Amino acid sequence: MWVLSATKPFIRFQFHSLRQWHLTLPFLLMANQTTTTALSASYSTGSPVHAPLKRVGTHNGSFHCDEALGCFMIRLTNKFNNAEIVRSRDPQVLEGLDAVLDVGGVYDPARDRYDHHQKGFEEVFGHGFSTKLSSAGLVYKHFGKEIIAKELKVDEEHKDVHHIYLAVYKSFMEAIDAIDNGINQYDTDQPPKYVNNTHLSSRVGRLNLDWTDPDQSPQKENEAFQRAMALAGSEFLDSVRFHVNSWLPARSIVKETLAARQTVDPSGEILVLNKFCPWKLHLFELEAELKIDPPVKYVLYQDERSKQWRVQAVSVSPDRFESRKPLPSQWRGLRDDELSKEASIPGCVFVHMSGFIGGNQTFDGALALARAALKM
Fold this sequence. Notes:
Layout: E1 2-6, E2 11-16, E3 22-27, H1 33-43, E4 55-58, H2 65-74, E5 84-87, H3 91-95, E6 99-101, E7 107-108, E8 113-114, E9 124-126, E10 129-132, H4 135-152, H5 159-180, H6 200-205, H7 218-259, H8 261-264, E11 270-272, H9 280-290, E12 298-302, E13 309-313, H10 336-343, E14 348-351, E15 357-360, H11 363-374
Parallel strand pairs: 4-5, 4-6, 6-8, 11-12
Antiparallel strand pairs: 1-2, 2-3, 7-8, 9-10, 12-13, 13-15, 14-15
Helix pairs in contact: 2-4, 2-7, 4-5, 5-7
């Protein structure tokens, strides 16, 4: 959650984020060296009211999601907390700044230079990821663990920090890197079946000044960049908080459930969640990590509202609709008594037309459905 209050000469955002960690982030968005020089002169007075702040640079002109998010994230660090943003392409201005993102043609973390446009740049996140990084990815690579550790209130070396660091990159950051670097999601020479302009990079892009806007001034452009930072930053923090508060506890539940799977059924292919949680991504990752074979085919859990039990077929991969072993075709589309009669299992509720999920009024009935489906 962020609150905007306009004060001159600064525009100030109050970010309510990372639990009780509140940051007030003044933005000084400068497009020319004259303003920079004037500000530097004010620092020389030594006034405690105008104590010098770190200055982070990025380019002016049209902006993208990566530098908007990178500028937001770097201000969440101890080193650049409360930093000013300087928007310029002037090499002399950029040279005097404490950090520079997405401009300048240099990647040198020792000097906090994080550009990715220069010839020969091939930096990736590592840990099995091969997507070339954008400026946001570079900031996350070097500062992501610090941000996550603050949210968890633990040391950066804590194992949970590492798990979330990788998960946030996989589920949130990598797409921003790939889109900014023009990397297709799929290897295909066929045109896409539909257009998706709803992702974060597209929404940030639409915040740029429209060509029909009569006011194309640097001030108006900088105001648009502030909105882009707020949008990208809020979604980043949402992702971090989700992984801390929901994803990480769910991983523990799924891991314990996997360890006990053969007490449910000797095949080891049926999983029972005694408490529902987001399980899909964890299941795939833990199966690979623990070298589980054969893989799980069905997951049972209780619907919190109806109190009925569900049997869900595990998909072939996290991003596919197809199931490893869908519920039998002769059950699909049937409900209640008709389904109970066809399956010879009392208490049946439904089986979806695609066979990816079904239901029974009791746990024993759901387990019987899963066991029967394994044999069909």
